[in-house]
Design a protein that fits this description.
Number of strands: 7
Number of helices: 17
Distance between the termini: 18 Å
Strand order of the largest sheet: 3-4-2-1-5-6-7
Largest sheet: 7 strands, parallel
Shape: globular
Length: 349
């Protein structure tokens, strides 16, 4: 059961126009768009297999699967892969490959508008409902996604918004400001340029360049929103570098903050005999390496792995909660992803 206290607080903020939303890849994933890892590996395969692209293009699931298989076998760093691409491609070529891989599974623009026929994204629909309520208004939206799925959804509702992706764009009076601090790549612009996308923040060096510039427009906007009103982070994971930068930013701001984040509970999966054997096999392999290195160690067959792992999962949630409290972000725990859209729907009631 999600927190009633959090729901009431967020509902109150929404009613008085002080609610800010922070959106991550989880919001776009339900529409079939790739996450960061899938995007990077598909860009690499797109670059390395130019002549075969037309045969691969209709099957992005195989593109992602082959890319992940390759990375698992080679141990290649995703950040290094992005740097390889930047080294061998011009800015325009890099942006073009990014666009094609971002919208690969939707790329039938010559035949139809894919957003009209795409499967319903329940979470995006509920966020759109919050943004288009006739009597209430979000304060702003900060999305770390390149795509314009939210803008497309708002356009279908004839709702007024301004996409902000650089320091020169100012939100129109009365419109909802949708900030893209990591760059913007709208679907209807299949030939992106540096002027039309803003700074694309994709690799580690990109993040570092922004983080080291305290006066960058994106840092100023995020600092302002995080310390004013109430925030709700949706589709951002604890392993997401964007989130880690956000919480570090908050921790160093000596001002009142009131921000929430959806976090999935790490429940202990079913522990089978196969799992037990797999752990034993790994333990035996490590023991063999230790003995070859002349490390003296007794051979022990341990039977309580399941008990230890169960306790680990239980303690992990407690510790994670404490970490976010120290960072002044309040977790809203969920078990199934469908709970998020239902919770967002209740905010608008």
């Amino acid at each position: 059961m999600m927190s009633e206290e959090a729901l009431n607080d967020l509902r109150s903020a929404y009613k008085n126009g002080s609610l800010n939303l922070y959106l991550g890849a989880g919001v776009s994933a339900a529409s079939g768009l790739p996450n960061w890892k899938q995007l990077v590996v598909s860009m690499y395969f797109r670059f390395m297999n130019i002549e075969h692209w037309h045969s691969i293009k209709p099957f992005p699931n195989y593109l992602y699967a082959m890319g992940e298989w390759y990375l698992n076998k080679t141990g290649e760093s995703l950040d290094i892969i992005i740097r390889k691409l930047k080294t061998h491609l011009s800015d325009e070529e890099f942006l073009q490959i990014l666009y094609e891989c971002l919208y690969n599974q939707l790329d039938e623009a010559s035949v139809r508008n894919p957003f009209q026929d795409a499967p319903v994204n329940a979470l995006l629909s509920e966020i759109t409902a919050l943004a288009t309520h006739p009597d209430r208004k979000l304060n702003s939206v900060i999305t770390y996604n390149f795509d314009d799925l939210l803008e497309q959804s708002l356009k279908n509702k004839n709702s007024d918004y301004t996409s902000v992706f650089d320091a020169l764009t100012l939100p129109k009076n009365g419109s909802l400001a949708i900030y893209h601090p990591h760059g913007f790549m709208p679907f209807e612009n299949p030939a992106p340029t540096l002027q039309s996308t803003g700074n694309i923040i994709l690799s580690e060096d990109d993040y570092n360049s922004i983080a080291n510039n305290s006066h960058h427009w994106a840092n100023l906007i995020q600092t302002s929103r995080l310390t004013q009103g109430t925030g709700l982070m949706i589709g951002l994971s604890f392993s997401d570098r964007n989130l880690r930068r956000l919480i570090d930013l908050i921790a160093n701001i000596p001002l009142h903050t009131n921000n929430y984040i959806f976090l999935k509970k790490n429940t202990m999966p079913e522990f089978t005999e196969a799992d037990s054997q797999e752990i034993k096999k790994k333990a035996d392999a490590i023991l063999d390496k230790m003995r070859k290195a002349a490390v003296k160690v007794d051979y022990v067959v341990y039977e309580n792995c399941q008990m230890i792992l169960t306790e680990l999962f239980r303690m992990d949630e407690i510790i994670t909660h404490r970490v976010f409290e120290e960072m002044r972000i309040k977790p809203i725990w969920f078990t199934e992803y469908s709970e998020i859209s239902e919770f967002v729907r209740k905010i608008g009631k």
